Hints:
Shape: globular
Order of helices and strands: EEEHEHEHEEEEH
CATH class: Alpha Beta
Distance between the termini: 17 Å
Mean pLDDT: 97
Radius of gyration: 16 Å
Strand content: 15-25%
CATH architecture: 3-Layer(aba) Sandwich
Number of helices: 4
Strand order of the largest sheet: 5-4-3-8-9
Largest sheet: 5 strands, mixed
Low-confidence stretches: none
Structural class: alpha/beta
Number of strands: 9
Amino acid sequence: MLIPRQKTPDLTLPTLDNGTFDLSSETSERGTVICFYRGLHCPICAKYLTEFQKRVADFAERGVGTIAISSDGEDRTREMAEKIGADTLRFAYDLPLAKAREWGLYISTSRGKTSIGIEEPELFSEPGLFMVNPDQTLYFGSVQTMPFVRPHFSELVGAVDFAIEKNYPARGEYTGEV
């Protein structure tokens, strides 16, 4: 399990049209929002990433970088980016499932074709949303076992505003006896 205020796993992946994403080299003033999504086969992911794309500028205004990541290969990732009309949201691909597990993501098996007629990969990760500080420590994390009920990006933008204004620390850091 990832612990707030502690270093997250390293993450280095190829991106569409933006070179290599290396979390340890990110330069955003207040960190990076990382959205792990299931893949092209997921219609809920397409809807979710469309909302993320709409909020990229809001995050950037607050000094926060953004990226969407899946275990899909380059072709399926490009198809997803085109499907949602991504023009500012970065996409990384080829997430190894072992790395997904390091981030605490759940792994699912294929059920064949989805409701939109696209074949699920044999194995893929379920969604996760993280905000990582510039020093690569975890500020916020949310993981799902299903494609449903994900954090809203508009609420996350509001939370970033609150955290900036109040200098609010990452919570959930206690690991001692209970």
